[in-house]
Amino acid sequence: MGSFQTINKAYNSVFQSERLSIGVVIPIENYAVSPIPSMANHLTRVKLIEELGFKALWVRDVPFHVPSFGDAGQLYDPFTYLGYLAGQTSDIALGVASIALPLHHPVHVFKSATTIDQLSGGRLIMGVASGDRYDEYPSMNIPYEERGKLFREAFEYIEAAQTTFPVLEDNQFGDLKGLIDVLPKSTGHKIPMLITGNSRQSTEWIAEHGDGWMYYPRNLYIQELKIREWRDMIAKYHDQSNPFMQPLYIDLHQDDDFKPQSIHLGFRIGAHYLVDYLHQLNSIGVNHVALNLRFNTDKIESTLEQLARKVLPNFHSDKFEKAEA
């Protein structure tokens, strides 16, 4: 696979070559029967996942509640919310999965991201996407059919803004002529940007420009082929490889030996089978899994503690010495 680049504290901790780490998607609650979560006990649960040793928390960018989509996300503005969580935590990575770049001016995305990165001591990882909720685009007078081009130009704008007194011409979002700068800069040499899905770009473009790839759960064979193809393309442009991550919805069963049953983008599953499945993901080149508990039927705190005792020790050897038998 090859080693990964060094960017900031979060990126270096969460993504390690040939190893898998585990994070949690916010809201950390069951909201299976409603698209709108309660956000009850959200801060207590964020502090709990950090204490238990999960590597990252992930929030999403959902500007509008689109009922037909069926999920309003964590409700709060992602950057405002991460700024708040940065002050309430000390070590866990603060992830965005993902900012829909065409729906924001990139200078604001850049400044918000670097501010959180600075205030948290380098704990930000930023996923970026072209967006897939059609109704949001006419609501902001943005052409949905142009989202691929807009994504690419916003990405290039943020890349340029990471340099001192940047120069960028013929960009949809504005020209930078080297006469003004954008501050603050990030704690590392750049903000890590992971591309989500295809974002209306080719796999080769993603391999050349992204600092990693966020993709959706797929059949293990298909996922392995996709990761191999992408990493072969990375080798054409870079001396080092990049991480691959995916979400996984789980409903953790109290019986550790409960065999997997399919749910939306994941499984109802016992801890022993979950460990086996995560090892399989690790073996095909997945470096991080963001667990989503939206459909979890057991008490959330109990599930998090079970995961910490029975699953995390198999992958986070720096936090726990061994798994529970």
Would you mind describing this structure in some detail?
The chain is α/β, with parallel strands linked by helices. The protein has one domain (9-314): Luciferase-like domain (TIM Barrel). The protein has 10 helices and 12 strands. The chain has helices spanning 9-14, 42-52, 78-88, 106-119, 136-139, 147-161, 203-209, 220-237, 271-283, 300-310; strands at residues 21-25, 56-59, 93-100, 124-129, 167-168, 176-177, 193-196, 213-214, 244-252, 261-263, 266-269, 288-292. Strands 1-2-3-4-7-8-9-12 form an 8-stranded parallel barrel, surrounded by 4 helices. Strands 5-6 form a two-stranded antiparallel sheet. Strand 5 and strand 6 form a beta hairpin. Helix 3 runs parallel beside helix 4 (106-119), helix 4 (106-119) packs across helix 6 (147-161) and helix 7 (203-209) packs across helix 8.
